[in-house]
Design a protein that fits this description.
This protein is mostly beta strands. The chain folds into two domains: about 25-120, Immunoglobulin-like (Sandwich); about 245-360 and about 370-390 and about 400-815, TonB-dependent receptor, beta-barrel domain (Maltoporin, Chain A). A hairpin with a 2-residue loop joins strand 12 (about 180-185) and strand 13 (about 185). The chain is globular and about 105 Å long. It starts with a helix and ends in a 14-residue tail after the last helix.
Length: about 850
């Protein structure tokens, strides 16, 4: 029998592949999930090793968990094996297992807990990651940033990806100021209304993480045109164990050339009950803010010119506090309560010199304006939550939440006028305005989440929000040195807002693909009443259907790409709606009660990649809005009017990038930058503007000899655009030095910030113009500041590496965080 050469090749290949096929058929797929024993958060990128029972030195298989802590690995052979699970800062977990050739074995849920002993005795050399990246949000770990010991939250926001803080402390997210601020997953009206004032006096040490949610899901409120900033407060908890009772705390004092403050923190645990509280006081003084303004107005009687110069002194005091309590009713349910308090008071004195000539002003005149302004913002919030889990994996739960907020706001202003030369061409009567606004809000929410299968989960909920806003604006004018109330120029205004919402959202995963789709419907009832009769009462009802979608593809365990879409709305607040007219001799400012809801459509493409040395995020985003709310100005006679309207067609294309490079064991380099192109058009004003905008932050973090931690940062921004003008960019540097003493209980930090203009100033110019007017403003702010902070920690609780989160059910709380962590105007 003669065997052909072709047949011989086939037999030879069969002999080679036969053992390989037998080995593959004998492989067993091991599956499971690794989670933290206290928080039940996924343990992403933990190391899983499989050893033969009689040889624990050399593993026969090794893998890492994915972004959701899931285990998927193949083991060849039969017999007894030992499996180990290891995570940074967690105790080693071992399991014994016997394999008999099964195609698949489910290990179930493996719990790991903090290794307090190893954390106390071993120096961890790997740098903690500052940023966790996902397709639809990014989390900045404030407490792992060395600047957090001595800086404010506003300083930290300059470092956060996709967030920009300009030279006037205006905050934007993805280039827009239309965002909402949340605390612990719940809306905070005061912070949303006055973010820069609050954040510039809030110590960064009060905040654990800052989350930038660029693609909020259906569970989030629809408000916030470009997304949400969520602050998780710094509340350390005890590790688990048989006797966790005890307490932790810290106190801190700070002082500098422009500010001083104090802060205290304490947490305690007794059995199933835990409590934590934070309190801070901050005083800030800025003197010599220089402003020069030149206005020109063209009319039939010629060109009217106005020139004004001023030098402002500001003083502010802020008190901030929060309290959190929780009690575990049993292993499957918990009840918690929170309380928050903020009090911000500012006193501002601005002497102005104003000169007028030409047009309406003929041969001209000049006068002095002594302006005293006393704004005060307050916030009180009280919340209660109950959460019940229905399975041991804690993947099925029901949450009931209630939140009450009270926001009194006061803005008192007094103006004294003195004619210096010429004839009184404008009304120079001394005047005083007392504007008091009060906002009350009650929120009740029910959320339910359940898995439909191993790959699909479903959540749904309903929410009711009742808002009652009142405004009492009293106007006074002086006669013979005495101020008299003017009923004709005063206003009392009541604004009721009821919002009912329902949502449904599904999340699915299949292999390397992930998807989340949701739909939210909100119906709003509005009722406006003018109690003095100087306005027309009206009612308005409307509904909004808000879709959201995100798709994720995991190209590798350390690389993913995502596509997102959402529609967001922005309801005009009482500041935009309030029709009260704030007057000066040359201008008047007022709200617009006819404003409509602003609707934004956002599409994004996100790329995340990381390694033990380098973390990279790039986000490409396109935003569309045809009815954007914008402030605008126009002249009636010689009076400059400032108000708001749905008058802008807005298109914004942006690319933002964040890089974090662990160049060495003690060295970290950070790049945070963005470039965008804005196109703004208004048919109502027959105006349009467009241009490129760029922002850059470069940072260096270095551990110096004697374990001194140093941070140095450079910030640079280019010109930005609004419908009627532009604002110039600015540049500055900030950073800190800090040193731990007494085994880490005592910390001493030095912090600095300075502009790169002369004398450490921030220098920027603003231009505004319309059909028949133009205004140029030059501002110089003396921001150079140096401060020292001393903090001392005390207590007898072992602190865990992973902080226990609130039980409140929301996208901020219940979604996994794995997948991105490194394995290591002036009045005249």
């Amino acid at each position: 029998m003669i065997i052909s050469q072709k047949t011989m090749k086939r037999l030879f290949l069969l002999l080679i592949l036969a053992p390989l096929s037998l080995a593959l058929s004998a492989q067993t797929l091991l599956k499971g999930t690794l989670v933290d024993s206290l928080t039940h958060e996924a343990e992403a990128y933990s190391t899983v090793r499989v050893f033969k029972d009689d040889n624990t030195e050399r593993p026969v298989a090794m893998s890492i968990t994915d972004t959701d802590g899931r285990i998927s690995m193949r083991v060849a052979g039969k017999g007894r094996y030992r499996i180990t699970f290891s995570s940074l800062g967690k105790a080693l977990v071992e399991r014994s297992l016997t394999l008999s050739g099964e195609p698949e074995v489910d290990l179930g849920t493996i719990l790991v807990h903090a290794d307090a002993q190893s954390l106390g005795e071993v120096t961890v050399k790997a740098q903690a990651p500052l940023v966790k990246m996902e397709t639809d949000k990014m989390s900045y770990n404030v407490q792992d940033d060395v600047d957090s010991r001595s800086s404010t939250v506003l300083d930290m926001l300059r470092k956060v990806p996709m967030v920009t803080v300009d030279g006037q402390d205006n905050i934007t997210v993805n280039g827009s100021s239309s965002f909402k601020v949340y605390v612990e997953g719940k809306p905070n009206p005061m912070m949303s209304a006055n973010p820069s004032q609050v954040f510039k006096v809030m110590p960064a040490s009060m905040v654990k993480t800052i989350e930038v949610v660029t693609n909020p899901g259906a569970k989030y409120d629809a408000e916030g045109a470009v997304g949400v900033l969520n602050l998780t407060m710094n509340r350390e908890q005890a590790t688990g164990g048989p006797a966790p009772d005890g307490h932790n705390g810290s106190v801190a004092l700070s002082a500098g050339n422009r500010s001083y403050g104090a802060q205290g923190y304490v947490s305690a645990q007794k059995g199933r009950f835990s409590v934590s509280g934070n309190m801070a006081f901050q005083h800030q003084t800025i003197k010599g803010i220089e402003v020069a303004v030149d206005n020109s107005q063209t009319a039939d009687n010629g060109t009217s010119l106005t020139h004004a110069v001023s030098e402002t002194d500001q003083r502010s005091n802020a008190v901030l506090g929060n309290l959190s309590m929780s009690y575990d009713l049993d292993s499957m349910s918990v009840v918690s309560a929170t309380a928050g308090l903020m009090h911000y008071r500012q006193k501002q004195h601005t002497p102005l010199l104003i000169s007028l000539r030409g047009g309406y002003y003929g041969e001209g005149a000049s006068y002095r304006n002594e302006e005293w302004e006393r704004p005060k913002y307050q916030n009180l919030s009280l919340g209660a939550d109950y959460q019940r889990f229905f399975n041991k994996e804690r993947t099925r739960s029901l949450t009931l939440s209630y939140l009450f907020t009270l926001n009194p706001t006061h803005r008192d202003m007094t103006n004294y006028y003195e004619l210096l030369s010429g004839t009184p061409l404008v009304d120079l009567t001394d005047r005083m305005s007392l504007n008091h606004m009060l906002s009350r809000e009650n929120t009740l929410q029910f959320d339910y989440i359940t898995p439909l299968s191993k790959a699909v989960s479903f959540s749904a909920g309903v929410k009711y929000t009742g808002r009652r806003n009142t405004s009492n604006a009293e106007y006074y004018t002086a006669t013979a040195g005495e101020f008299a109330y003017r009923n004709d120029l005063s206003m009392r205004y009541k604004y009721l807002n009821h919002i009912a919402a329902a949502y449904a959202e599904a999340t699915a995963k299949s292999g390397k693909l992930g998807a989340k789709a949701g739909l939210r419907y909100e119906y709003t009832w509005q009722n406006v009443t003018y109690e003095l009769g100087n306005g027309e009462d009206f009612r308005k009802h409307y509904g909004n259907l808000v879709p959201s979608l995100s798709l994720t593809y995991n190209m590798a365990p350390t690389r993913n790409i995502g596509l997102t879409y959402n529609m967001r709305i922005s309801r005009p607040g009482i500041t935009y709606l309030n029709p009260y007219v704030e007057r000066t001799p040359l201008s008047q400012t007022y709200g617009n009660t006819t404003l409509e809801v602003e609707k934004n459509h956002n599409v994004g493409l996100v790329l995340n990649s990381f390694s033990p040395k380098l973390m990279v995020n790039a986000s490409l985003r396109q935003s569309f809005c045809d009815d954007a709310i914008s402030q605008y100005q126009f002249y009636e006679g010689s009076i400059l009017n400032t108000t708001f309207g749905n008058i802008v067609r807005q298109r914004v294309s942006s690319l933002s990038s964040y890089l974090n490079w662990a160049a060495a064991r003690e060295t970290r380099l950070i790049f945070n930058g963005s470039v965008s192109y804005s196109d703004l058009r208004s048919t109502a004003l027959t105006q349009e503007t467009s241009g490129w905008v760029g922002n850059l932050m470069l940072g260096l973090q270095q551990t110096l000899p004697w374990k001194v931690k140093m941070s140095a940062n450079l910030i640079v921004s280019t010109r930005s655009y609004s419908l009627q003008g532009w604002s110039s960019g600015f540049s500055g540097v900030f950073g800190s030095f800090s040193k731990d003493l007494c085994k880490g209980r005592l910390n001493i930090a030095l912090q600095y910030f300075t502009g790169l203009h002369r004398h450490g100033q921030l220098a920027f110019d603003n231009y505004h113009g319309g059909r028949n007017f133009a205004a140029m403003q030059h501002i110089r702010v003396p921001v150079a500041q140096f401060a020292a902070k001393v903090s001392y920690s005390f207590g007898n609780l072992k602190k865990q590496l992973t902080q226990r989160k609130s039980k409140i059910q929301s996208d901020f709380i219940d979604r996994k965080e794995g997948g991105t962590q490194l394995p290591e105007g002036m009045g005249m």
